[in-house]
Amino acid sequence: MEISEIFGLIRQYGADVLVIGGIVFALTALLKRTLLKKMERKYITFLPFVLGIAVYLAYGAAAAGDFAENAGMFIQKGFSCGSLATVIHVLVKQFSASGSLPDRGALRAACAEEMLSAFADVPAGYAQKIAETAETDEEEARALIEALGEEAAHAANALLTALRHI
Hints:
Keywords: Membrane, Transmembrane, Transmembrane helix. The chain crosses the membrane at residues 12-31, 43-62. The chain has 166 residues and is mainly α. It has helices at 3-13, 15-33, 41-44, 47-63, 67-98, 104-116, 126-136, 138-146, 150-153, 156-164. Helix 2 crosses helix 5 (67-98) and helix 5 packs across helix 6. The longest helix is centred in the middle third of the chain and has 32 residues, at 67-98.
């Protein structure tokens, strides 16, 4: 990632989302290796989003003060933090496996594969098709996700949000 891309992310999401997203990634990794070792993978998929919302709500309450008025925004930003944590997880996994960063399309497909594999058997190339479709038509991508089954459909919103951030 180039310096201009990093500054673009900071402008787009804010430094608070980037920092809290990194914290959520670290907390998720720690919890997966300790307290939540035996938890089903399909529930762990949502952990970064739950943690992101919880941590951002705490941050927002401490920093902004007017919690009741801004709760909706705090939840939205917390969801963005969870999406960022998921993207970081996929990046770290891809980087450690191949030794180099994947291109954007491969990263999006890997993210889709990672999130959906907890809910359904994903046919070869299907995650790539979802990632490509999500760039132009989110409703069609949602239909592709829902075609994998009812459990995969529950991850549709989280996956599409994560793909928007990549």
